[in-house]
Amino acid sequence: MRESGRETDVTAVPRLVGEVARPRAFSGLSASVGALRDSMVSRAKESIGIRYLFGGNNPLRGLDCSALIRHIVSAFDISLPRTAQEQARMGREIPKDRDVMRPGDLLTFGKGSRITHIGMYVGEGRFIHASTSKRKVIESSLDVKSSSLVREWKGVRRLVDGDFVVARYDSVFAYLDSLGITGGDTTAASRDRR
Questions:
Q1: Mind telling me the catalytic residues?
Q2: All structural domains of the chain with their residue ranges
Q3: Fold of 25-191
Q4: How far apart are CA 108 and CA 154, in angstroms?
Q5: pLDDT tens digit string along 31-79?
Q6: Looking at residue 51, what DSSP letter applies?
Q7: Which ranges of 75-158 would DSSP assign to H, the alpha helix?
Q8: What is the pTM of this model?
Q9: How far apart are the C-alpha atoms of 134 and 52, rounded to whole Å?
Q10: Backbone dihedral region of 170: left (phi > 0), alpha (psi from -120 to 50 degrees) or beta?
């Protein structure tokens, strides 16, 4: 490649800003997974202040909780189903233990067996979610035991881990979901195949 009359080594050209580093088999996998988690958290923090809109799926007009999570992870080529209930079956179940939880994990909330809200853990007992009461995307603490949301905390799901990089929603079902069509076997077991 020539640049202003001189040769330039193509490998010396910097990578595009925002390009997601993909973990390579074995070499540096742990560092790549950590970097991916950090990037997801950065994108979540950039979303703070976006307007809450029930059923909203456009960050310019507003997002609900599950659309926020889809917005965050879509930048990393991770496709998730539309609702919090469906997203709560993706990835791996992780104990509700801060010593085990990692930034980028999904926190699920609800009553009984129903998941009605979802957010992203960002570390140090904090999570980002689309708040219905504040009417925008905010960062909250799990330490506020008086919070009705924290009392409804159900579980933790991990999308990015050392032995798998993403929990991908089956592309056929993602396409059908985008059209508002459902069908086929969408159980957690069928989606968690890798």
A1: 65, 117, 129
A2: 25-191
A3: endopeptidase fold (from Nostoc punctiforme) (3.90.1720)
A4: 5
A5: 688 889 999 999 999 999 999 999 999 999 999 999 999 999 999 889 8
A6: B
A7: 84-87, 148-151
A8: 0.71
A9: 8
A10: beta
